[in-house]
Amino acid sequence: MSHKPTITDSLQFPADSKVPRALFGLGAAGLIATIIGYFLDADQFFFSYLVSFVFFTGIALAALLMVMLHHITRSSWGVVVRRISESFFSNLWIWAIFVLPIILGIHNLFHWSHPELLEYGTEEYDKIISGKSAYLNSTFFVIRQFIYFAIWGFLGYKLHQVSVKMDRTNDWGLTSLLRKFSAPGILLFAFTVAFASFDWLMSLDPHWFSTMFGVYFFAMSFQAFWAVMILTVFYLHRKGLLQETIRQVHVYDLGAWFFAFTVFYAYIAFSQFLLIYYANLPEETLWYYHRLEGGWQYIAYSLLIFRFVLPFIVLLNREAKKNRTVLGLVSALVLIVHFAEIYWIAMPAFYDHGIHFSWMDIAAFLGLGGIFFGLFFRTFKKHNMVPKNDPKLEDCLSKTYHQ
């Protein structure tokens, strides 16, 4: 005789938790330290800030896509972890504030923004940058940032609000509304994320281009997103939260997705490299050449080993996806290397004579990270940690391993 699965856990994050306040305090301290760094070395400030900004924004964007895919496919496997994802992207409209330093530092970050490069006949004139000036110009760059965050902020806010409304009203008809937002949202997401990755990272080297870069950015952000999800679930379990709701089978699913996107990331990253290597065009190969000399090559090799080979070998084993210690260690490793990869992409445009690290890299990471996770926990504690009235919650709770 079958029985209907029920939730025995409390669905409320402890109201008296000081975690958001502590994270906001850490974020404020980190940002203050980074701002002090601005007066010491403005260029270093903007590059350090950009790397951390892209790191955390990419995670929120991956969470947004995951939930939209969840809605349009009407899948049930991830209902118990969906509110975690929703809390990551629900504040994108607030997070938009943190793109302002990139706009203000446009001349420090992006070589193409210097007007003298477009003056034909002068010594500084750059024919390639001039040819791209219809897209790479300061005014259009600023407009695009507003467009990106208007779309992401709207989608994130509405998807979260409708999901929370379903908790209160038990109106299953809202699932149709979620799908109506998600279907066009995925199309808008694809275009905006691709162009945002061009703006923030690829245009740091305006002579270089790769038609695969948008997918490459998406792939590495999505792999990092699963690592964040795994560590967040483990944190909640350590605090005694949702232990009987997010069960071992759901942890296994997270591990399986993590493994899948480890393979997908490697496929996209290697495909981009192979196409450029095979074509052997100077304007393309120089980008990799500069990142395989001056100490940068050590980061490149570490990406291959610690972002693909090691996680692939470890997670290939079925039992490893159930082992929380293994999953936790691999997730932490991938997040460290994810930061290193964004650093490896961006910083050679600044340090053209070899690898270098600054204390501002750490300060900016702690500052933006504290604010990012502070916003997450502030939202997460306001509502149920699981969408309790979702029509597919019962199927999710009934899930068992396929032998």
Automatic annotation (TrEMBL):
Transmembrane portions of the chain: 21-40, 46-67, 88-110, 141-160, 181-201, 213-236, 257-278, 298-316, 328-351, 357-377
Keyword set includes NADP: no
UniProtKB keywords: Membrane, Transmembrane, Transmembrane helix
Keyword Transmembrane helix: yes
Name of the protein described by the UniProt record: Quinol:cytochrome c oxidoreductase quinone-binding subunit 2
